[in-house]
Each structure stands twice: as structure tokens, then as C-alpha cells.
Amino acid sequence: MAALFHARRAPVVVMGVAGCGKTTVGRYLADSLRVPFEEGDDFHPRRNVESMANHTPLDDRTRSPWLAAIAGRMRVAGAEEGLVITCSALRRIYRELLRVSRPDAFFVHLTLDQDEANSRVAHRRSHYMPASLVASQFEDLEPLEDDEAGMTIDATLPAERIVAEIQTELARRT
Ligand SMILES: Nc1ncnc2c1ncn2[C@@H]1O[C@H](COP(=O)(O)OP(=O)(O)O)[C@@H](O)[C@H]1O
Ligand SMILES: O=C(O)[C@H](O)[C@@H](O)[C@H](O)[C@H](O)COP(=O)(O)O
């Protein structure tokens, strides 16, 4: 995997359960790397957003078009421009699907416990995701594994520190 990787070019997928900080860290990272940023939530079909807003978690079937759309965006990311994109990517098969479109994808898994995720989602304003679905996110979560290109980092560290550690790891692998 390392041989395929180039920090400026490989798409970075910031993953993890709702509330782990994907959007916060992803935006900051994209700014730091000077690459485009995409919010994975924007790729959901409207019915998925309605489902979550109505307290019904997504499943493999309902996530399928969303993952396909994210994979499509990753596929067209220019070789030079790079990309940071957020996607919960909770299950390994979802990540496999994204890797089909971009085998060089680098996953950053932001980890935190369920209480902290609950608290963050409950206190977040202007977002469709209810805290009632956080438990289902942990049920579905299959953490990033050692043989998957990427890194796992404590989501409760300050965002600046998380971004600095990601940049260090990207530079190390280039
Ligand atoms: N490293 C962090 N430390 C403390 N709070 C954070 C951190 N990252 C994100 N947050 C806060 O947690 C909440 C969820 O973050 P968000 O980026 O929306 O997560 P996600 O996109 O994974 O759902 C927001 O209120 C955000 O400000
Ligand atoms: O796979 C899923 O069940 C959803 O994509 C979910 O993981 C995502 O968390 C929501 O879209 C809420 O958005 P945030 O993750 O940004 O809170």
C-alpha cells in the first residue's frame, strides 16, 4: 500500500461515528494540505437524511447509493489536486468499496467513546443526526484494521493536534 501512496495525491477519508469530528478535522486538514474538501453527508440521497432525522438508522442497502456517490467523487479527484472527504465508513466492506474506486485512499479513523459521541451529537446545532442514532453507529462500527492504509487517532485531542499528527503521518509515508 505504501508504494501507492503520495500525500499530495491520495484521497484522505476522515471516518468514524457521528460526532467524532470528521467535518471539523476534515476541513482543517484540507485547508492545511491545500486540497479540496468534500462533506460526505452531502452525498446522501434525501431519503437517507429523512430516515436518520426520523430516528431510523441506515443499513447496507440504504448506504449503498451514498457510498457509490462518494466513491464516484473520489474517482474523479485529480491526480495532482488531492482530496479530503468525510465518510463514516463504519464497516470494512464500505471501505473496500471506496478502495475499489481509489486503491490509494488513506483512512483516518477518529475514535471516541459512546458517551462522548452522544454528548457531542446532542449538543450540536443545525444537524439532522439525532443522538438516538449514536448507539447504532457503534453497533455498526468495524474499526480500521492494521492492514488497511490509514491511521487511528484519539478524537478527543484538540483538532489542531489531530491535524498535525495526520500531516506528520502523511509526510512519513510519502
Ligand atoms: N477534537 C475535538 N475536540 C472537541 N470537540 C470537537 C472536536 N472535533 C469536533 N468537535 C465538536 O464535536 C461536534 C461534532 O463534530 P463534527 O465535526 O460535526 O463531527 P462529525 O462530522 O464526525 O459528525 C461539534 O460540535 C464539534 O465542534
Ligand atoms: O453511515 C451512516 O450511518 C451515516 O452516514 C452516518 O454515519 C452519518 O454520521 C450521518 O450522515 C450523520 O452525519 P455526521 O457523521 O457528520 O454526524
Automatic annotation (TrEMBL):
Family to which the UniProt record says this protein belongs: Belongs to the gluconokinase GntK/GntV family.
Protein name from the UniProt record: Gluconokinase
UniProt cross-references to SUPFAM superfamilies, sorted A to Z: P-loop containing nucleoside triphosphate hydrolases
Keyword Lipid metabolism assigned: no
Reaction equations catalysed: D-gluconate + ATP = 6-phospho-D-gluconate + ADP + H(+)
NCBIfam families: therm_gnt_kin
Family annotation (Gene3D superfamilies): P-loop containing nucleotide triphosphate hydrolases (3.40.50.300)
Name of one Pfam family that matches: AAA_18
First-tier enzyme category under EC: transferase
Keywords recorded for this protein, A-Z: ATP-binding, Kinase, Nucleotide-binding, Transferase
Pathway the protein contributes to: Carbohydrate acid metabolism
EC number from the UniProt entry: 2.7.1.12
